[in-house]
Amino acid sequence: MREQDFGVVRKPLSVLERIYGNGFVRKGLILAVLAAIWQVYGLYLDNPLLLPTFFATLRSFFERIASGELPLKALTSIEVLLQGYAIGLALALVFTIAAITTRIGNDLLETLTAMFNPLPAIALLPLALIWFGLGSPSIVFVLVHAVLWPVALNTHSGFQGVSGTLRMVGRNYGLSGVRYVWKILIPAAFPSILSGLKIGWAFAWRTLIAAELVFGTTSGSGGLGWFIYENKNTLDIPAVFAGLFTVILIGLLVESLIFRTVERHTVRRWGMHV
Description:
Oligomer: single chain
Number of strands: 0
Shape: flat
Number of domains: 2
Order of helices and strands: HHHHHHHHHHHH
Radius of gyration: 24 Å
């Protein structure tokens, strides 16, 4: 039977409807409105030491990009962040596999997450400085703490939510141990795992910037937090806002380019929700 027999009417979308249907355009419009409010309020306030205008911040941002200072600071921070993030993910996987395969492992993970998950990572930095000295190892230590517990908690919750049917399928195929976790539990629990990865990334990123702001350099040149701190001391407030703008921009890029891509090629393709 032909489509017209059902009386289906197709109405072409207008240009405005097509533009509004694009999520990137809507979010870009929101950012443009926020930038305009910032610019207008900065002009009204007329106090660059309190709040530089949006265009003054952009000018400082591009000047520091052209000089290579901001890219170097951002690269320094990202290198340290990736070290702590990778170690935190590896430890979270070990704890979670132990928790899902053994009773004592489950008790251990529940006890440790109850103890350490509420503890702010930055609160451990003074101890880390005593144990590891002033440098990257101290920052990496607190980053591991920031990543480990939320990732392990979300992953463990996702594993516990896997249906009994899928578990029986894995057992019937003779899967056990790591192979059972890799082939059955991780795909089924991936929405929760992805949420944990996002939370761990956000916690690690803000912990890193806070640590650099409070305790200074993480290596010879320091990162974005140290850049913000230095320019605050010299009262170069547009550069301070340029550093904050870079922190936000990196966060948006990671969310849009990495996590959204992973989500699109996994949970959305599989018909799951995150």
